[in-house]
Design goal:
The complex is a heterodimer of chains A (78) and B (418). By secondary structure, chain A is mostly helical. Chain A has one domain. Chain B is of the alpha/beta class and 418 residues long. Chain B has 4 domains: 105 residues, OB fold (Dihydrolipoamide Acetyltransferase, E2P) (Beta Barrel), CATH 2.40.50; 151 residues, 3-Layer(aba) Sandwich (Rossmann fold); 85 residues; 43 residues, no CATH class. In chain B, the strands form 3 sheets. Chain B has a 5-stranded mixed β-barrel with strand order 1-2-3-5-4. In chain B, strands 7-6-8-9-10 form a 5-stranded parallel beta sheet. In chain B, a hairpin with a 2-residue loop joins strand 12 and strand 13. The radius of gyration of chain B is 63 Å and the shape is rod-shaped. The termini of chain B are far apart. The chains are: A mainly alpha (78), B alpha/beta (418). At the A-B interface, helix 1, helix 2, strand 1 and helix 3 of A face strand 7, helix 4 and helix 9 of B.
């Protein structure tokens, strides 16, 4: 499913379209409900995307990171 | 400033005046870290380690000083050399002299050779089509930014500050490298090599972080030679080889480096790189809140409309039976009158028929028969005798005539022989 997961931008664009369609109105209740549910799901994806961007700040010396990777490679080849 | 310094009516002390000149000149950006070309004269290297000289050409000259250890001096530089310096204007207040504090000095011919190499590199890249290659689009919301720049540099501080303003706590990794000097090229290339690894899902999983999805490589402003690593082929090739979008963020707005020409995003400065690649989280949140509200509002409105329609229908339904009855009443009345009319017609028809029947009955009344000369015989019990077999000899019968009756006794019976 992760392959089909929309990017933030895709989700945002679809969400805008859904809200615009709902605001235009003129749809049946079933269709309205379906679009609303899709919109709510997209909104959740967007919110999660924002949250998932928060994390650590790593400041690494070039050599330190290189050593870390070298150690990993050595371990992997053992 | 002291209180006395704010008085502007009296004469200025000369030292104050020269200090004012110094303040004014030093604040002028045009006079700071400027790149200037000229000829070296009165070149003097003192035992203290400082070097004094005059930089001149046909039109002007200015004193210059290279403080001890401030920069490396190419051994070929001597009296009469044409050099390019990066220097800031300063005023020596005690003597009222203006002078250049030199931060970098290069023989001009070296710089010329560098420029030529750069021109050739750009030409090669153009022929290879690298300058027109399709650019990778940076993610709309980067989840892990890698910054390759000088440790503790002003540019890095600026980037951190801007990121925190726009997206507090945004995940980022900084790889500290030398960005100027002889080893800069090699370190930047090594940094970019590490970025390729940090962008792999395996490495990300091992480090417990999302893969790097954007690389910003750059440094703050400086003399052209300071930025030169970003004009060199190894750095340019490393940027081209990156599987993830690379932002080139070098120097000031006016600096155009070869790295800018090949990067996926060309930022005019390190700060500009952040402004272009890191959205303002609060704005996105506000946008989401608005959309959420609009979504709910549209939903509520649609269902509100539907509910109102239902209420309306319900109200109409409640009064509908009355309307039905009224209509029923109306049709009943119609039917009634139609029925009345039909009944009347039926009665009239019946009346006519009965009158006809009466007339017919009238015509076959026994009286009418008797009037024509016939008589009717009745037994003593009152039965009408209709055939001879009903008679018995010796019995009494009444004979009815039109105008009276007579009693008779049967003496003989004759059956009609067929």
């Amino acid at each position: 499913m992760s392959e089909n997961e929309p990017t933030y931008n895709e989700a945002a664009q679809r969400l805008e379209a859904i809200v615009a369609a709902l605001e235009r109105g003129g749809m049946g209740l079933d269709e309205t409900l379906k679009l609303y549910e899709e919109g709510a799901a997209l909104l959740k994806i967007c919110q999660q995307e924002l949250m998932s961007a928060e994390g650590r700040l790593n400041e690494l010396r070039l050599e330190d990171l290189e050593h870390e990777f070298q150690a990993q490679d050595a371990q992997a080849s053992d | 400033m002291t209180g006395r310094g704010e008085v502007t009516t009296g004469p200025l002390a000369v030292g104050q005046f020269v200090s004012m000149i110094k303040r004014t000149l030093v604040q002028e950006p045009l006079f700071q870290r400027q790149t200037i070309k000229g000829e070296v004269s009165q070149w003097k290297q003192y035992p203290s380690g400082h070097t004094y000289f005059t930089l001149r050409d046909h039109d002007g000259q200015i004193s210059a000083v290279i403080w001890k250890g401030r920069c490396t001096i190419h051994p070929s530089i001597k009296e009469g050399s044409v050099v390019v310096v990066t220097a800031s204007l300063d005023v020596y207040v005690k003597r009222g002299n203006i002078q250049l504090n030199v931060e970098r000095i290069e023989p001009a011919n070296t710089l010329g050779a560098m420029e030529e190499a750069r021109r050739q590199l750009v030409e090669r890249l153009r022929l290879e089509g690298e300058l027109d290659r399709p650019r990778k689009r940076p993610p709309f919301t980067p989840k892990h930014i890698l910054i390759i720049t000088g440790a503790g540099s002003a540019a890095l501080a600026d980037m951190h500050r801007l990121i925190e303003n726009r997206w507090p706590g945004l995940r980022r990794t900084v790889i500290e490298v030398l960005v100027q000097g002889e080893r800069a090229t090699e370190e930047i290339v090594r940094g970019l090599a590490l970025s390729r690894r940090l962008a792999t899902p395996e490495c990300a999983a091992q480090r417990g972080e999302p893969p790097v999805d954007l690389v910003i490589v750059g440094r703050g402003g400086g003399a052209p030679e300071d930025l030169w690593a970003f004009n060199l082929e190894p750095v340019v090739r490393a940027i081209l080889a990156s599987p993830i979008p690379v932002v080139s963020a070098v120097g000031h707005e006016s600096d155009l480096l070869v790295s800018d020409l090949v990067a996926d995003v060309r930022a005019s400065t390190p700060s500009n790189a952040i402004e272009r690649c890191v959205p303002v989280k609060a704005e996105l949140e506000q946008w989401q809140d608005e959309l959420n509200e609009r979504l709910n509002h549209a939903m509520i409105r649609t269902f509100g409309d539907a509910r109102r329609r239902l209420v309306n229908l319900h109200a109409r339904l409640k009064v509908a039976p009355l309307a039905g009855i009224n209509a029923g009443k109306r049709s009943m009345l119609t039917i009634n009158s139609r029925l009345d009319r039909a009944v009347e017609a039926t009665f009239a028809r019946e009346r006519t028929r009965i009158a006809g029947l009466e007339a017919a009955l009238e015509s076959i009344h026994p009286q009418r028969v008797l009037e024509r000369g016939y008589a009717m015989t009745q037994t003593e019990q009152g039965d009408v005798v209709t055939n001879v077999n009903m008679l018995e000899v010796g019995q009494h019968y009444s004979l009815h005539f039109v105008d009276g009756t007579a009693q008779t006794t049967v003496t003989e019976i004759h059956t009609t022989e067929e």
